[in-house]
């Protein structure tokens, strides 16, 4: 059995466990933000859960790298997965560890048809808004002059920012919050671009289907007309032959 086949089997077998690990990581990240009054025991447990989820992605990446036939190409085409296992080591970039969720969605959508890409985009949009809301609330809560004080405020701010509406009623006042806003704006532009491209692809396919149907109908009409002409020519030849046979000889 080739390494590529073994890697494909490994990815298929670990798809759902890694999805669960990513969701556990999101819970471990979000809970202390939504409930800042958690006791030290709970915080420790959630920290352990967070690092356990990261360890699962580390093992997955190393196994797939080991089974890859062309390791340099594997690294180049799986930079998001590499970020998952590297960024947790670069404190204080804790927020960027949430890229694990994007990694799961990216693998599930890889090599899929446009319909699955649409599902991926929708899931990514929801996840980005949720994660940005949590990160912004964590950065802004308690800051002097902060306008974003509750999760509802953060969710509204994230929704207006990712869609590039930007009403301006809520905005970050901290440096960390502004960096989160920059990342969310870039994500919003990327998501809008993917949605536009997907719709354009669907529209082009519909036009091509209509053109192909029209060409098929035209070809069928031409073939039918050709058959009718052939039958008519055959009938004319038969009539000429009969007329020539009935005509008396001259002379």
Overview of the molecule:
This protein has eight helices and no strands. The chain is mainly alpha-helical and 251 residues long. The longest helix is centred in the last third of the chain and has 72 residues, at 175-246. It is elongated.
Cα separation of the termini: 91 Å
**Percent strand:** under 5%
Poorly predicted ranges (pLDDT <50, ≥5 residues)?
90-97
Instruction: Indicate the radius of gyration in whole angstroms.
Output: 32 Å
Q: Please write the string of helix (H) and strand (E) elements.
A: HHHHHHHH
Task: Summarize the amount of helix as a percent range.
Answer: over 70%
The profile of the biggest β sheet is: none
Number of strands: 0
So how many helices? 8
Secondary structural class: mainly alpha
What is the residue-averaged pLDDT? 78
Shape: elongated
